[in-house]
User: Fold these one by one.
Assistant:
Number 1:
Amino acid sequence: MAEMDTSSGGGHKKGPGVKKGKKMSTRVDLTPMVDLGFLLITFFIFTTTMSQPTAMKLFLPKDVDKPEEQNKVKASAVLTIMLGKNDQVYYYEGDDPAKLQSSNYKAIRDIIIDKKRRTDPKDFVVVLKPTVDATYKNTVNILDEMTIDEVKRFALVDISPVEYTYVQATEKANGIQ
Amino acid sequence: MGRAKLPRKSTNIDMTAMCDVAFLLLSFFILATKFKPPETLKVETPNSVSNKIAPEKDVVMVTLDKDGKVFLSVSDANVAQKKAIIDEVNTAKNLGLTEEEKKNFSNNPTSYIGVPFSQLKSYLSKTPEELKGVVLPGIPVKDTLNNELIEWIHAATSAFFDGNKKMNILLKGDDAAKYPSFKGITDAFKKNDQMKFQMITNPVAVPPGTDLYKTNIATGTKGASS
């Protein structure tokens, strides 16, 4: 409460009446400023979009109705990959869909590479046949796989009813819902 | 006793350096930031090794959402093309759109088409506020006989051709979308002789040991060239 300043006056070297300017420290407490800085940093980190989306090019072939205009490929050089439901892949070599085997998106790479190694590069063709159960992600993944394995010739084709029945039978046998 | 007296140190640290770093980072993020556009449609894009940045100019974007619904949008800068597209569709399909309704598509920056032709008039007569929360049916594509995207792409192709601009067709698809919708979209592109299109993906690294990986090391490139 009301205190008397008893210290003033005597005992000082300076004469009476000379007020001593209190020496203030030049240091400022920077803690709040740092707090604010980091708050803004976190805000900008969260709102920023660092990675620009990339785009993958796809060239569609022209539809040819006449069979004589269609490209002929050697049956032995063809690898047909069918995309089923639940991220499952079915493939067969040649032209007999009855020989189909199941695989997945990880294992299919080795199969493609293996087939590519065994086949004459100028004949090698991969035929991709997504079923109605395949997702867009599956389709993009397998197209990407073509880029990764450097398959120069591949085609995205509709699945034939015969092949689809084989796929469905295999799915049933493997218990895939 | 013989205990060494530790000098009592001040607990105050000099914050200046930390403050410098904080603001350096802050200025970096402020400059590097690019705000995400408000997403009206949530789409989870798949990954690919492609490293080509998606174009941003003269874009006709076809969005495929997780339910397989298809939406069409044109980049905001192409107001003239948007107007031409809606004009052409209006004439071709006899929709009887008023100028006001056409403007709703061409001048509205975030607008996209997500309804069949039969509902287009009522869709465009609504303001963006009225459309909030409304579930749109999407443009019909799955039925080959009634693929309305063909008409839209046709209108877009001629609009960009008349404007002497190179049209970039982008497809932004969701991971969970089913293949038939994708096929409907590619069919619509094919019918209009638009054989080139690009799919928006998230970039991922090329898996080591693959042929592409070896080629990239040999040529000193990253990602896929095409």
Note: Residues 208 and 214 of chain B are 8 Å apart (CA to CA).
Number 2:
Amino acid sequence: MATYMNMDQLRFLLYEVHGVEDVFQLPRYSNFDKESLEILLDSAKAWADQDWYPYFREMDEKPAYFKDGKVIIHPHVKKIFKDAGDNGWIGMYFDHEHGGMQAPHFIVNAINHIFESANNHMTGYMGLTAGSAHLITTFGKQELIDRFVPNMLNGKWAGTMCLTEPQAGSSLSDVKTMAYAQADGSYKIKGQKIFISGGDHDATSNFVHLVLARIEGAPAGTKGISLFVVPKFLPETEAFNDVITAGDFQKMGQRGYCTTHLVFGENDGCVGWLVGEANLGLKQMFQMMNGARIDVGMTATSTATAAYYASLQYAKERPQGRRIESNGRKNPNQEPALIIEHADVRRMLLKQKSIVEGALSLLLETAKHVDFALEGEGDQKKENHLLLELLTPMAKTFPSERGKEAIDNGLQVLGGYGFCTDFILQQYYRDIRIMSLYEGTTGIQSLDLLGRKITMENGQALQLLMARITETNQEASNYDELKPYVKQLEARLGDVQKVLGRLIPMAMAGDYESFLADATIFMEMASGIVVAYQWIKMATAAKKALVTGTGAFDTAFYESKIHTMKYYFKYELPKAIACLETLMNEEELTIVQEKQEVFG
Amino acid sequence: MKILVCISKTPDTTSKISFVNNGKEFNSEGIQYIMNPYDEWYALVRAVELKEKNGGSVTVINVGDVSSEIVIRKALAIGADEAIRVDVVPESSLQVAKEIAAHAAGYDLVLTGKETIDYNGAEVGAMLAELLDLPYVSFAFKLEKEGEDWLVSREVEGGTETLKVGGPIVLSAAKGMAEQRIPNMQGIMMAKKKPLNVVASIGAEKGSVVASHEMPPAKSGVKMIAPDDMDTLVKLLHEEAKVI
């Protein structure tokens, strides 16, 4: 079987960089220890090898389709989903009282990395089911929990989240789906939702939709949106609940993961139940959305990871061309070199490695903040909450954007074969494209980062992150080999301060349009620097292992970590300087100016 | 029905193998250990299946230091009910068989994998049967209970044979005995609560010790031959690879 991820890389991050054992100290997770984690990781990998990866290409080649009002998906999805329910994988992080395993999010994310690297089409079905069930357990009444959650966690029913409408995509304040109060406390639901992932298929017997809708008479905008649970079939009677599937979107990637168009209440027969408080639906939904953003970041990371290993394998096997000798010529009588020996190919491989391993480190650190934000106490809880808020948009965007670039380079390694369907790179290239659109586009994430997260609580989150980076830099400075890179990182942090020194006064003066016009460039700069921080962390852990001899991996493993860090600092981090140039440039070229015709 | 399954830890099949101390010791730097697949996939899973079908209990036994506990926990996660770890680093098959024999009385069935994937000894099962004075069937790929007897199928030269064996037996399990069973989340979390009894070594004799290991010579590089150049291909297969 082809390599699609590397367990050593994952273990290095879990144990030697991010200290997974820390989360076992939290009372909620005291049932976990290194042994149980190791068995979990091995079991997840064995399952992914057996049932996930072998069907990855097939799910693309035999995509979901719509026929006679139903969506048909690859038959193996049904088996995986059922096994996931039977064996406790869907409810990993749920409370014991809800039938879950109370696994730390840190571990759930590590396991998701294994699954998603094996087959990125599958995890959405499980993740959305878990996410929507979690909304019910968090905000719903006990009656709703009892009616819906057990069959979602055991894999009999699937869950979805229904936000987008034809006229309301990134702008959810324009949601038009209506909810009409009934005498029995339920609501009649009427409206349309599009781009509903996993919204209907033949792998489960029912669907539990978490739907954003506006109660009749509710205020306009986001403050008038409520959250409802709307099943396709009523749990007690199995009667059809007037949720019609109008179609399945045919996509360029993730073709095994169906994306539906749903119509609620076409015949005035759709019933839903309010989850939590009226008019707080969007706020509640964002509990799930934040988790979903981390999930998307992990899916992007994992997709790019699998692509990296596919291109690496090819580079190790493909002979082509000859290395230049010291006389500046190539000897045609020599055996052709494997392409991994060519500098340009090595550069493309290192680019991928530095992006995917840097992104994975960022995602795992973010997931650790989730655990401490939920289960920590006092200042620790607050600090982790702030860091989580700040890192989430970057953890979603860096792998989604830079992962595309990584896979593009992976495809390039294969030359013309990369463009051919005989090889898998083209599938990864298509699959990852959605990640910068899912759960808030890169533009939305960037507005969130600059407009909300940087400035939240008087910039406290940013100060905390800076303090963590400084701490890591101090540790790294114990090793002479790492000192030059620490200096580079410090210089880039200074650049961030410079940029904020220019942008923040605009916000304070009320010129929000100028403040946010280049938020995406700021995202590119900031997330690139945060991943540089991850590389300093990894290189420090590697150096420490080499010096003390206490690491679990061999010398070559640690040396490759330090080498890849150096690559990132030479080739990738300088891109932050280009962003700095743009962000400090005072010309305003993208803001709408009156009487100006730019596009024609 | 009481079943005892002997399990050992072996390096993961993807490990880079090397030796230190003049070839006397295996170099464990960077090595990830797993449960020996023949012990896990075939012996243990079949034992759990038999327990699920006929009732009884499954005990796993390992001879090893504390680093073996990860594979023992995995065995408990797969479905064993309890575990015994004999606290000594094993150095020979005879030593392992004698240490296990000290705890193997009273079982209806004792299972081992057909061999370990590190040293491929395939000796412990036979030694154990001798020490326990029980019938031994090696390389079994099918095992069923029939009344008070066991029906065991095994591969023999050119075919298979099925044996009927009465009473307690020792058996080594080969491919086909069962399908790999992946531990589920519940099993993994329950494993922590199952008993793992650590017992002292009886100080069993080793019989033999390793004098040295030697790695096979490195494989030479791949030679690319043009598809239409059959003469060169035949020459190389004859003179260098020596396969024709």
Note: Chain B touches chain A at residues 16, 29-30, 32, 34, 69-70, 73-74, 77, 180, 182-186, 188-189, 191-192, 224 (CB under 8 Å).
